[in-house]
Amino acid sequence: MELTAIVIGLALVEYVVFTMLCGRARGRCGVVAPATTGDPTFERYFRVQQNSVEQLILFVPAMFLFGHYVSAPIGAGIGLVFILGRALFARGYYEDAPKRAAGFGLSLLSNLVLLLGGLIGAVVAYF
Q: b/e per residue, 81-90, with b = 16+ CB within 10 A?
């Protein structure tokens, strides 16, 4: 389970980086809190941060389930694909919102594999 914890930790570090970049964009773009709109550049950074929170809500428990009931090394590999997908999503979104699609797809696919695999593994372990 150490591999599972390491990959979850890396995903959380990535999220902290997104949060810091969002804060920096807020300052550079002059968007005063609590506003979350007003500058398209800031809004893209904000959406990367918010979408990453939405994905992490699924990723962390799905990663745990898969690592525990299926395979920690395989789960770690899938988790690294998720992290890569988030990075590609961010890079694409920062440039131009439509460029986020490939990274979003990798993240979503990784989450679905982790969730379904972990759920199936838990059901099999129960019976």
A: bbbebbbbbb
Q: What is the pLDDT of residues 15-73, one digit of tens each?
A: 999 999 999 999 999 999 999 998 999 999 999 999 999 999 999 999 999 999 999 99
Q: Domain containing 94 — which CATH number?
A: 1.20.120.550
Each residue of 36-63: b (16+ CB within 10 Å) or e?
A: eeebeebbbbbbbbebbeebbebbbebb
Q: How many domains does the chain have?
A: 1
What is the C-alpha separation between 56 and 14, in angstroms, rounded? 11
- List the domain range (segments joined by +) for residue 52: 2-126
